[in-house]
Amino acid sequence: MSRTALITDIHANRQAFDAVLEHASQQGVDRYAFLGDFIGYGADPAWVLQRVQALCAKGAIAVQGNHDRAVAQGPMPHMTSDARHMVEWTRAQLSPEDIAWLKALPLTRRVEDCFFAHANAFAPEQFAYIHGRLDAVRSLQASPCTYSFFGHMHEPRLYHLSSTGKAGDFTPEPGTEIPLLPHRRWLAIAGSCGQPRDGNPAACYAVFDSDQQVLSFQRVPYDVDTAAQCLTAAQGLNPELAQRLATRLQGGQ
């Protein structure tokens, strides 16, 4: 493994995903790792899955997110009416083969000294969030690898744990290469490609160079207006999803 693009929480946002793939190609990545939640919220689930599946056929890594599991299994009883409707709408856009592919996705992957999951390492099947340093340390201690990569939180963050048990964290600056010192264990949350929630409207992903042991978080502007228009035009979707996308891009919850 050399330069790996870490892409997560695409959420069926075709415009954001297309922009990130183009940017990653320009960065010279030679592998992709998709950290779950390919679908949900966005208007183009089938298109996104086709692109991901094509890259997986060439060796990309992919794990299952909570939205992927919900669509694969069908609406769950505890879901709100809006969430159930989104799941049902998304399932109707996908082929049986797409749904089977989502269902078969693993919760975790390990490649060399890298661990990949959607939410955490301590209970990946429960999709618990890493809200801060305590959750991160718990996940770092549960991970079998030096480097752990997750999504789920929709905000980029980097945590580390020293051999003496001292933990630290910080919000990375886009485009800055961060040396991952070998005497520490590292946990990176790669942000969100299709639903950023940190006040920056640009799509977010990260690039890990395992040869140089550096990580960089990237921000990629994309056509947010077209993504919102696609949501508005999609038959059967709540028009408020377009406004929710814009609100969340401005830092809403």
Automatic annotation (TrEMBL):
It comes from the Bacteria. Pfam families: Metallophos_2. Residues 5-212 form the Calcineurin-like phosphoesterase domain. Belongs to the metallophosphoesterase superfamily. YfcE family. This is Metallophosphoesterase family protein. It comes from Roseateles rivi.
